[in-house]
Amino acid sequence: MLEFLNPLRELNTVSVLVRLAVAVLSGAIIGLERSAKNRPAGFRTHILVCMGASVAAMTALYIFLKLKLPTDVSRMAAQVISGLGFIGAGTIVITKNMSIRGLTTAAGLWTTGIIGLAIGAGYYELGIAASILVLIAETLFHMLGRKIRHTPEYTIEIHYNEKTSLDQVLRYCKDSRMSIVNLKIHTLEGKDTLYAAEVRVRGSKQPEPLTEHIAHMKGIVSAAAL
Questions:
Q1: What is the structure's pLDDT at 1?
Q2: Which of 35, 46, 122, 149 has CA atoms 20 to 30 A from the CA of 73?
């Protein structure tokens, strides 16, 4: 650790103000990138999370070091980490095409809170270094991630009049090395013998050949990619 920071590791008015300032700065560094991308949790949210976690860490240290009360310093930090999970969960949404959005923002909020704990405990080097690495992960690694080829995923809407037909479709998808991601089945209104299913699949096979083959199966009325 950097020795010249040792005076600021003591719990006093100056060090408290420095820790709050570093926490605000660290939260701002991470939050600016999220705000630039119009994510649910942006600039102010990350600042508040980082600063709040820092205050929690300093409060625990104050109770233990200054008030000399019997307390477990790590317990408050553990509660902060658990509570951050509830905040992060609010940023995660499932879209209509069953894709998940907000995981990176949730993970960023969770990490920002832990960075705040480190800063509140006086570990300035770790907090600042982690903030920079989070920013790199959300910018540089984001660009690298976009270049990674992903297995295509799409939904097939199937109308059929024989219940066993759907089993054939699912078996054919698996034989074609397609993964079944999601399945919804319902009866069409006013047509007791006609069923509809939305099958979300993932695999290298293109949707056109797949739906064309399914449409010619026994009991299948129609098949189309959504």
A1: 73
A2: 46
